[in-house]
Each structure stands twice: as structure tokens, then as C-alpha cells.
Amino acid sequence: MAVPRKKVSRMKRGQRRSHDALSAPAYVEDKESGERRRPHHIDLKSGKYRGRQILEPKTEV
After folding, report:
1. How many domains does the chain fold into?
2. Is residue 6 part of a domain?
3. Which residues span the domain enclosing 35?
């Protein structure tokens, strides 16, 4: 079994863990509807993706 030769310092441990932080998801404003949506995702309100109609638009009830 592998055994570490010496204790990992707080600095090295922190440098390794610095990449584990979660980032907030990015949102962009849709050019046509003005709604906020994730990049590279379908706008669920209008049902469009990159100018093409993919889904049926949601109707207000």
C-alpha cells in the first residue's frame, strides 16, 4: 500500500482544494424574448434555440 513520505503542508493542501470550489451557473439574456436562460440551452418560454423553433411555445393560462 502506498504511504506518503511526509505530511502535506496547509499551503499545498489549499492549492489542491482551490479547484474544488463550485461556481455559480452563468445566465444570459435572450435576444428575442428578453428572458434569462443558460448559454447553449433552449429558451423554454419561446421554445427557440439559435433562431430555430424547437419546442412549442408555452401559452399563458
Report:
1. 1
2. no
3. 25-61
Its pTM stands at 0.54
Query: Is 29 within the bounds of a domain?
Result: yes
Q: How many CB atoms lie within 10 A of CB 39?
A: 8
Distances (CA, A) of 30 to 4, 8, 11, 39, 51: 52, 47, 42, 9, 11
Going residue by residue through the chain (61 aa), what tens digit of pLDDT does each one get? 899 999 999 999 999 999 898 999 999 998 887 889 999 999 888 888 988 999 998 776 6
Q: Is 4 helix (H, G, I), strand (E, B) or coil?
A: coil
Place of cell 455559480: 24
